[in-house]
Design brief:
By secondary structure, the chain is an alpha+beta fold. It has two domains: 160 residues, Aminopeptidase; 80 residues, no CATH class. Helix content is 24%, strand content 32%. It has seven helices and twelve strands. The chain has a twelve-stranded mixed β-sheet, with helices on both faces. The protein is globular, with a radius of gyration of 19 Å. The model has no long low-confidence stretch (mean pLDDT 93).
């Protein structure tokens, strides 16, 4: 299979048609599972910041890969790389690289691009020249005041409203005078971030959540190793908060 046999179709989500939505969902669910129309609508069509960019790759008229740059502003216009998937027969052919390259060209290189890659896509981003900003290491919320010192930024109120429409079940937890947004995990609750009182009241309260796990940010020593990470195209000089992770929006 030659790269020129593949056709790449890029669509802004405010102009996307039903066929493109169907093709995107078919590829996503062939690689992952549970990617519903409702999830797509919440992440892309109901995005509070504006239109996102979706890419679908076709081989012989059939969708074989999908990708997106989801609008997820930080200090102004920003896009997050999300929902990357390539069918098994088309992997190792440069499809992932071409999708990302075309998206950046269409949006414009002066924009902020960031992502939370998994272990499968991490090395592809590094190969393309994306920069590792930090590693994400699991810790337990034993001393909340230490978490507060390192995580001073509060989740935006409008962003919290967006998360409140997610298919995930979030709760708020109050400790002292501070409020936290948490999510039920398999074995314990996961910390999403600090939140103001009015935003917290959009969610159900969890008085005694027990163990809460959060992710501590640490600078990488070796940029080609994956421990969970935040990556960027370029080196923006500001923090990318963990609560911007696109998996919470779904």
């Amino acid at each position: 299979m030659e790269n020129n046999e593949i056709k790449y179709v890029l669509k802004w989500t405010d102009k996307i048609d039903d066929k493109s939505i169907e093709d995107f969902l078919n590829v996503e669910n062939a690689v992952f599972s549970g990617f519903t129309r409702q999830l797509l609508e919440n992440k892309y069509l109901n995005n509070i910041y504006g239109p996102s960019l979706i890419t679908i790759a076709y081989l012989d008229g059939k969708p074989v890969a999908a990708d997106s740059m989801i609008r997820n502003d930080i200090n102004g216009l920003a896009y997050q790389s999300a929902d990357t998937c390539v069918l098994e027969d088309c992997r190792g052919k440069g499809v992932f690289l071409q999708m990302k390259k075309k998206e950046i060209e269409m949006i414009g290189e002066n924009t902020i691009f960031f992502g939370f890659p998994n272990g499968n896509s991490f090395h592809g981003f590094v190969k393309m020249g994306w920069n590792v900003q930090c590693g994400l290491y699991p810790k337990y919320l034993i001393f909340p005041f230490l978490y507060d010192l390192r995580n001073r930024e509060l989740i935006d109120f409008e962003y919290a409203k967006w998360l409140s429409h997610s298919s995930h079940k979030f709760y708020y937890y109050k400790c002292g005078h501070n409020y936290y947004l948490i999510k039920q995990g398999q074995k314990c609750f996961q910390m999403i971030g600090r939140i103001e009182r009015d935003a917290a009241l959009l969610f159900e309260r969890k008085k005694h959540p027990g163990v809460i796990k959060y992710y501590s940010k640490k600078k990488f020593i070796f940029n080609n190793k994956y421990y969970g990470s935040i990556i960027t195209y370029g080196n923006p000089q500001f923090d990318i908060p963990y609560w911007k992770h696109d998996t919470f929006i779904g």
